[in-house]
Automatic annotation (TrEMBL):
GO terms for cellular component: Ski complex. TPR repeats lie at residues 157-190. Gene3D superfamilies: Tetratricopeptide repeat domain. The keyword Mitochondrion does not apply. The lineage of its organism: Eukaryota, Metazoa, Ecdysozoa, Nematoda, Chromadorea. This is TPR_REGION domain-containing protein. One of its GO terms (biological process) is RNA catabolic process. The keyword Repeat applies. It comes from the Eukaryota.
């Protein structure tokens, strides 16, 4: 009611003072508050801008009133406002919004670069610029911007995570790990940073740390605080990778740990072929143990494992399932070939090559 009364007063004042740009501006602003689609607002703001072409507020509000009706004209008005007051964050943000909606990425990039140079400590603009550069694949520029941001604000979890992602894409894996770790230290339940961190640890061979962080994330999943079921895949993969590079005695324990966890990886990721690949690799590794040691492996009961040959047969079956899902995957065919050769060696029957 108060705003409606204010509108009536402003209308009367604008009529009484037709050459007063201030009253037209006030009227336009009040009308916008009441209804962003009000044509009276646009008309009043056009008059205000004509009467005072140096009022950044008039052009800003005019751009605001046109943003759903005519984005091109709205952007032109806002750019005029930015020329008058180049440090105005509200103007810069609205230009950013409309250029994004228009898909004018080159103009958006120029706008953000220009504004960042004028207001170097404005973190909003630097973040937008960094993420846009990252989106466009300009990794060096994105990393440069994000490094500047974290020197100004070391508590931005999103930027640390994005910085880690940029480092990863550029191949700076240790730097990526450090960035993801910063994000995790700031926000211990950050699932995105945790997953990326685990993946980077796998790439760099820091498998114990990958296992430790996988277990931490699994606790969140099992307590219902997260639905990041892919962590079960990362967990068993990390154990398997560590087993593959470990000495004989440690390898046995790691394989048992793997076999104790693989069923959850299957259950939590239905439709995924990776559990089949991991299980087959582990079975093939276990098949190389002496039969007396082999019998001490704690396989899932559903596998009904009684002999080394059973392990190889199941590995072959799982590799076939992977090939069925990805028939053009050369590495899957190679895995199957190795398993078949292992079966031949075990059976000492050359006819196995024909299978």
């Amino acid at each position: 009611l108060i705003v409606s009364e204010a509108r009536l007063l402003a209308e009367n004042a604008a009529k009484s003072n037709p050459k007063s740009w201030q009253w037209h501006l006030v009227l336009g602003e009040i009308c916008l508050l009441l209804n962003t689609e009000d044509s009276v607002a646009t008309s009043a703001l056009v008059k205000a801008a004509k009467l005072n072409p140096y009022s950044s507020k008039a052009f800003f509000l005019l751009g605001s009133s046109l943003k759903t009706k005519n984005r091109t004209k709205a952007i032109a008005c806002l750019e005029r406002a930015a020329k008058i007051r180049p440090h105005d964050t509200k103007v810069a943000k609205l230009i950013d919004e409309l250029l994004s909606l228009e898909g004018r990425n080159e103009d958006l990039l120029k706008h953000l670069v220009r504004y960042s140079k004028m207001v170097p400590k404005d973190l909003w603009a630097r973040k937008r610029l960094a993420l846009l550069e990252l989106q466009n694949g300009n990794l060096d520029a994105a990393i440069d911007q994000m490094q500047r941001i974290v020197t100004l604000d070391k508590t931005d979890v999103g930027i640390w995570t994005a910085l880690g992602d940029a480092y990863k894409k550029r191949g700076n894996y240790q730097s990526a790990i450090k960035a993801f770790k910063e994000a995790i230290n700031l926000e211990s339940d950050n699932k995105t940073a945790e997953i990326q961190f685990i993946q980077m640890c796998q790439v760099t061979g820091q498998l114990e740390e990958a296992i430790e962080h996988s277990l931490k994330l699994i606790k969140y999943v099992e307590s219902g605080q997260s639905d990041t079921n892919c962590v079960y895949l990362l967990y068993v993969e990390s154990i398997l990778k560590l087993a593959q590079k470990s000495v004989y005695s440690l390898q046995f324990d790691l394989l048992n740990r793997f076999f104790g966890s693989i069923e959850k990886a299957f259950d939590r990721n239905p439709g995924f072929v990776l559990p089949f690949k991991f299980a087959a690799d582990a079975l093939l590794l276990a098949s190389r143990y002496h039969v007396d040691t082999f019998q001490h492996f704690e396989f899932p009961k559903t596998w009904k494992m009684e002999s080394v040959l059973d392990a190889i047969e199941l590995a072959i079956h799982y590799y076939c399932l992977v090939i069925k899902a990805h028939p053009n995957c050369a590495s899957a065919w190679n895995d199957l070939g190795i398993a078949l050769l292992r079966k031949c060696q075990l059976m000492k029957d050359n006819s196995g090559y024909a299978k």
